[in-house]
Design goal:
The structure holds 2 protein chains of 2 kinds.
Chain A (H helix, E strand, L loop, with lengths): L2 H4 L1 H13 L5 H8 L4 H15 L9 H21 L17 E2 L2 E9 L3 E8 L7 E7 L7 H13 L9 E6 L5 E6 L4 E2 H7 L4 H20 L12 E3 L5 E3 L4 H7 L25 H4 L6 H17 L11 H10 L5 H7 L2 H10 L4 H9 L1 H9 L11 H12 L13 H9 L4 H20 L8 H17 L10 H16 L6 H17 L3 H16 L5 H18 L2 H19 L4 H16 L3 H14 L3 H17 L3 H19 L4 H16 L3 H18 L5 H16 L3 H15 L8 H16 L3 H19 L4 H12 L11
Antiparallel strand pairs in A: 1-2, 2-3, 3-4, 4-6, 5-6, 7-8, 8-9
Chain B lengths: L2 H11 L3 H25 L8 H12 L7 H30 L17 H21 L1 H12 L4 H8 L3 H22 L1
Helix pairs in contact in B: 1-2, 2-3, 2-4, 4-5, 4-6, 4-7, 5-6, 5-8, 6-8, 7-8
Classes of the chains: A mainly alpha, B mainly alpha.
Chain lengths: 812, 187
Amino acid sequence: MSLVTTHWQALNDALDAALDAPPNERAAVIRAAFPNEPELQEEAHALLKAATGAPMLLDHDAWQCAGTWMQQAVDDAMEGATGNDASGNRLSDNVEPGTTLDAYTIDELIDTGGSSRVYKAHRSDGLFDQVVAVKVLRQSQRRNFGERFAQERSILAALNHPNIAHIIDAGATSDGHPYVVMEYVEGTPITTYSNTHRLSIPERLQLMRQVMEAVQHAHQNLIVHRDLKPSNILVTDDGQVRLLDFGIAKVLDATGGPTGVDPYETQTGAHPLTPGYAAPEQIEQRTISTRTDVYALGRVCYELICGCRPVDADTTAPYAMMQAVCEGNLRPMHEQFADRPAAERDSIAAKRDCTASALDRYLRSDLRVVIEQAMACAPEDRYGTAADLRRDIGRYLDNRPVQARTATSWYQLQTFVRRNRWGVATAALVIALVGAYAITITQYSQQMRAERDKSEAVTSFLTNLFTASNPEMNAGTPNLTVREVMDRGTAQLDTSMDEAPAVRADLQTTLGRVYSGLGLYEQGEPLLREALALRTEGHGHAEDEADTRSALGYLLFRTGDYAEAERQLRQAVTLAENEYGAAHAAVASYLNGLAILYNESGRGAQGEPLLRRALAITDSPEARATYLHNLAVALQDQGQFEEALPTHREAIAAFRAQFGDEYPGRASAMARYAFSLHLNGDYEQAAAMHEEALALRRSILPNEHPHIASSLIRYSWLETERGNGAQAEEMVREGIAMLGQFVPETHWEMQAAQGILGLALLQQGQIAEGRARLIPVYRGFRAMFGPDDWRTQRAEQVLRQTGGVPSGPEGE
Amino acid sequence: MDENVTQLLRKYQQGNAQAEERLWDAVYDELRTLASHRMRRERSDHTLSTTALVHECYLKLIDQTQVQWESRLHFYAMASRIMRNILVDYARRRTAQKRGGGAPHFNLENVQLSDSEETAHLFIALDAALSQLAEMDERMAKVVEYRFFGGMTEKEIAELLDVSARTVRRDWRKAKGWLARALDEDS
C-alpha cells in the first residue's frame, strides 16, 4: 500500500489547503500540515507538483492523443473490411513541379498547411498568360469535387470584390486530391505586414476595416469564409488587403464522401479549422453563420493590436485552448500584454510605433469592449455583421462612443470626456474618480454606507460631468452624444445598484435632471419619481430629498403641471431651509426654481421677492447671472417692461462674463430681452435681438428644442405687430409643431402660440379663423391671469378691433 | 435525428435502468461510428476534438427541441464514459496486436504523444488508475472522466455535479496529482 492510499484523507486535506493558498505559500502550508512526518510532507509536495506543474497528458485532448493509434486501428480494420477501398492507398498530395493540372502547370510549392499544399502555377493552355495559386487538399475522399464545385461556382462568381482573391477553377489530381485554382496574390500576411511597416494602432485598424468591408461583401452574397486568419489575409506592397480562400470551406462542406451524399456531414461546418482562430461554434461543431467570421475578425484584430494570443502563454495544449475558447475564458488584451516580459512589451509596442505604456492605454480603451464583443462566446452576443464591427471601429477611431455593449459602467463617460476635450486635466480626474466610484458600487456595495462620504464626493463629480453635458448649462455639446450617454446610463441604472438605493437615487436624480434639461420630460419624470420614492423611504438625507424634489418640480413645471410643481419646489425650499438655514446657496437655488414657476404661470409679483432674496444670498457669479435673468422675467411678467430692460442687460452681460458667447443661458436672456423690448414698443431692436437669440439657440441646441420653439413663437408675435403676418404664420406654425413634441396641447405656451397664430391669420385677413384661435386664448388668459393682466388686455384689444369681445364663457 | 434515443434520454433521466442500458448502446454505436468515420476522413489530426465528437453525437441522436439543458449534460456524462470505454478498448487492441500487452512504466508529464504505442499503453494505465481513484474519491474521478474523455467544460461539469466551478478546478488539479503519482508508483 502506498502512502497515497493509506493517508488519503490527510493528504487530500493538505492539498486542498495548499491549493487554496497563494502559490508562494503552498510549501509552507504543506510543511505545517505534516510538521513531524517528512515522508508525508514529501509525498504531498510531489502531489502538489504534479497537480500544478507542466501540462501533462491529461491537459491534452483525449481524442487527439488517441488519434495516432486510433488511426492505425481503424485503417487496419478498414483494410480487412473493404480491401480495395481507395482510402487504403497511400495517396500523395505532393505535386511535382512541371505537372499539369487541367490548363495549369505547377511551378513551385509556396506553402504547406495542415490540410493543404499551395503551389504557384501558370496557365499553360496558351489561351492567356496567368499566374495562379493552386491549393491541393490533403483529403482524398472527396469525389465529385469538381462537379460540386461547379454548383458553387455561380455563388463564388458573385464574389467580385477588389479585396477578395478570385477562385478560378477546381478539379482533382490524378491521385484523387481535390484542388482549387485561385488568383495568385503577391502579398504578406496582415500581421507580418503591419509589423514590418511599423503600423500604428489606428493604421492597423484601418487595414482591418478594409478586411471587414470585403467580408461584409461576401456575407451579402451568402458566403461565409469560416477560416479567416492572418495567413489568409494578405496585404500587397501598395497596402491593399486581399483575402484568400473565400468560399473554399463552403465548397468543401458542400462536397460529400464516396457516396456523394455524406451522411455525417451536417450543416455544422465540419471542416478543417484552424485552432486559435476558430469560433466556439466551430469547435463544438454547431451552426456556422456570418457571426463565425465576425469572431475570427475580432480574433485577428486582437492579435494585430496587442501582439499576443488571447489565452495564457502556456496554454498550448489544444484541449485547454479549445476549452478556453468554448467557455469564453479568453483574457483581455491588456492582461496578456502585461504578462509578457518587459523587453518583449517594448518590442511589440515599437512595432506599433508607440511606447509600451501608450499601447497599454490602447488595450484598455474602448477597443477592448469592441474586440470582446466581436469575440463573444455566444454568436448572438457578437456584432451581427462585419459591417457593424467595422462601423464600431470607425466610431472608435473618431473618438465616439462605441456601440458595443459595455463591460464597465463608466466607460461611456470616458469616451464622452475624450470626445469633448474640455478641461482635459479635470476630465482625467473625473474619470479616475468615477472609475473608482463604479468599482465601489459594483464590488463593495455592502460597504456602501461606510463609504458614504467618499461616494458623495464622487457622485458630485459624476453629477458635474453630466451637468456639464447638459446643453442648458454648457454649450457646444453634440446632443446626440449626450443622448447616448444618457440612455445607456439609464439602462445601466435599471439593472444595477439595487444594493445601494441612496446612490441609485442620486444617479436617478442626476439623469432625470439632464433629461429635463434636454427637454426629454417623458424620460426624466419616471427617473425622478423613482428617486423621490427612494428618498421618502429614507434613502439619503433631507438635503438629498430637497434636491430630488427640486429637479422633479422643475420638470413638472416644464410640462405645465404647475400645482404639483409648486408643491415639490416649496417642499424643497422648506427642507433646505431646515437643513442648511435660510441663507444657504441651496436655498437660493430652490427659491430661484420656485420663482421661475411663478414667472411662467403669470405670478411674477410672487417671484420677484424670491429672486431678490436669492440674489442677496448667492455669492456665485454663475448663479447671479441666472437669478438676474429671472428677475428681469418677473418684472416683464408684471408688465414692467421698461424697468426690466436694465436687468435684462445686466443678466446678458453676466452670462457672457461667466460662460462666454455660446451659452444657452445667454440665449435665453437675449430672447427675453427681445420680448421686453417688443412689449416696450421698440420693435426694430426687438427684432434684431430675437434674430440673434434664435440663431444662437439654433447653433447650440439640438434641432428640435422647446427653447427654439419658444423663440420662434415670441418672435412671430413681434412679426404680427410689425405687420409681417405671412412670415409670422410660418414661424409660429414651426414653433407650435416643435413645442408640441415636448409639452401637451393644454400647456399655456401652446395656447398662447395658437393665439399668436390667430393674430397672424387676422393680419392676413382671415378673420374668422383668426378669431377662432384667439378667443380661447383670451378666455384662458382671463381665467389664468385675470382681466387686468396685460396679456388679457392685449388679446381683448385685438378681438375688439376685429369684431367684438365675447362676453359669455362659451361661443362667439 | 432519432426520436427513440431522445425518449430514452428522458427515461434515463427519470431513473429508468432499462433505458440507461439501451441509451448506452445507442450512444456507444454512434460514437464508434463517428470516430471511425472521422478517422477515415480527416487525416489532418488537428481538426478533431473530443468535445466536437461528443457534441456531434448529441446533435445526431437527440432532438434538442424535446429535451432540456440538463439532459444535454447527462448525455455528455454518459458519452464521457463511453468515450473512455472506446478509447481504452482501441488501446488494448492496439497494444495486444503489436506487442502482446504489458506496459512497463509511465511518466505522465513527458509523454511522446507522437508515439502511438506508448500513448496506447498510457491510456490503459490511466484507465486503471482512474478506477482506483474512483474508489477513493468518486467525484474527482468523474471530473477527470468528464473533462478528459468527454471534453466537457468546467462550467458544464460544475453544473452536472452541482458544485462550484472552483471545486471542479480544484478536483481536477488534485486528480492530476494523484494520477501522476499513481502511474509513477506502478512502474
